[in-house]
């Protein structure tokens, strides 16, 4: 039984990295933007999240906010769940797709 060569193994593992990073980059950036918009919209309580520009960011972010609202207590009476999710999406983006991110290192050096 022979072991697979390193170049063959590298070619097989690199096949999934590019599509994943191509999808994750825009997705994580959009979700970070959506959470940032939710932070800004919370400053203006009269904002109707069902109207046109806000519905674009409210629809994908609402399930995540509902998931965390009961578990993350308000800080000084302010709901901080959008800030929590903004930090999570930014962290994941940096770890996977940043300048020295795991997927970037895998694409560049096959590490």
UniProtKB/TrEMBL annotation:
Record InterPro entries: CCB3/YggT
Species, as recorded: Fragilariopsis cylindrus CCMP1102
Keywords from the UniProt entry: Membrane, Transmembrane, Transmembrane helix
GO terms under cellular component: membrane
Protein name stated in the entry: Putative YGGT family protein
Transmembrane segments: 20-44, 83-105
Pfam families listed in its UniProt record: CCB3_YggT
Translocase found in the keyword field: no
């Amino acid at each position: 039984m022979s072991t697979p060569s390193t170049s063959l193994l590298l070619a097989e593992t690199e096949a999934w990295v590019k599509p994943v990073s191509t999808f994750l980059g825009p997705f994580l950036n959009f979700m970070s933007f959506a959470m940032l918009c939710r932070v800004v919209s919370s400053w203006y309580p009269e904002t109707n999240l069902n109207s046109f520009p806000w519905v674009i960011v409210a629809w994908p972010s609402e399930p995540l906010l509902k998931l965390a609202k009961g578990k993350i207590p308000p800080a000084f009476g302010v709901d901080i769940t959008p800030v929590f999710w903004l930090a999570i999406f930014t962290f994941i983006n940096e770890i996977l797709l940043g300048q020295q991110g795991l997927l970037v290192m895998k694409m560049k050096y096959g590490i």
